[in-house]
Design a protein that fits this description.
alpha/beta; five-stranded parallel beta sheet; four-stranded parallel beta sheet; 30% helix; repeat; Rhodanese-like_dom_sf; TST/MPST-like
Length: 288
């Protein structure tokens, strides 16, 4: 594919032009929300022509003990089997989208790029950008011929729970959840409220412009406001690892490497013995 507006993003207009030009592009519809985890009904009601539905809970995550978090990363075999169901072959160009801030699309982007897929882009602005441009949708299911892609073991840019605990001593650990969750005033999903001691809060809205991503300079400015410099190792976590991958995508747009702690707060808060900080500052009030 040609270089998009800002790698690894692609605009709706460019995507449509590439499709019209006959480029072979695998389209993945990763609609998912916490309040509506099954996006298939919406997919069937209307999706970008040719897009295959991707199930977040069964294909982009696995499930086990609560101490693994709410969205543990799938094994190579699980992800590879899913990617083959989506029709992916080695060397394919892939475009991923969703209908909410590209959060779930970023999870697919992160997993695939970390598994050795070179050409993966996210539709900037998601489905809303496509429909706002007056571009067509189709209904029904899309069942492609099974692909033959071989994925690598997931590697690089991934932090364990122990890495996350030690990260503030060597760099910036960013918590991208809402401020009230970071401060420990509320916790709607996990058993304990608060944040990892030493983590800095940077909610996702700080590096977005509407449904799409802000420009690279604005993203770098938001990261700088969280204390990130050119020499700073950066890691991110959220509730269950999805929005942390979203920040990794934003970081790539801005030329800043962001390591993802996929277990995130859901793993931390379900693991006995992990200290919890509350309040508006990174150190906060720590309960060990």
């Amino acid at each position: 594919m040609a270089t998009s507006r800002t790698f690894p993003l692609i605009s709706a207009e460019e995507l449509h032009a590439r499709i019209e030009a006959g480029d072979s592009i695998r389209l993945l519809d990763v609609r998912y929300r916490l309040e509506q985890p099954d996006g298939r009904p919406d997919h069937l009601a209307g999706h970008i022509p040719g897009a295959v539905y991707v199930d977040m809970d069964t294909e982009l995550a696995t499930h086990g003990d609560p101490s693994e978090g709410r969205h543990p990363v799938p094994s190579r075999d699980v992800l590879q089997d899913a990617a083959r169901r989506w029709g992916l072959d080695s060397g394919d160009a892939v475009v991923v989208y969703d209908d909410y801030r590209s959060v779930s699309a970023a999870r697919a982007w992160w997993l695939l790029t970390r598994s050795g897929v070179d050409d993966v882009r996210v539709l900037d602005g998601g489905l809303a950008a496509w429909t706002a441009a007056g571009l067509p949708l189709e209904t029904g299911d899309v069942v492609p011929a099974r692909g033959s892609i071989d994925l690598d073991e997931l590697s690089g840019g991934i932090a364990t729970i122990d890495d996350a605990e030690a990260w503030p001593a060597r760099g910036i650990l960013i918590d991208v959840r809402a401020p009230e969750r970071y401060r420990g005033e509320t916790e709607p999903y996990d058993p304990i409220a608060g944040h990892i001691p030493g983590a800095v809060n940077l909610p996702a809205g700080a590096y977005l412009a509407g449904e799409g991503f802000a420009d690279p300079e604005a993203i770098r400015g938001a990261l700088a406001g969280a204390g990130v410099t050119d020499a700073t190792p950066v890691a991110a976590y959220c509730g269950s690892g999805l929005t942390a991958a979203h920040l990794a995508l934003a970081g790539t747009v801005a030329g800043v490497a962001v390591t993802v702690f996929p277990g995130s707060w859901s793993q931390w808060s379900n693991t006995p013995g992990r200290a919890v900080a509350t309040g508006p500052t990174p150190a906060g009030n720590v309960d060990a």
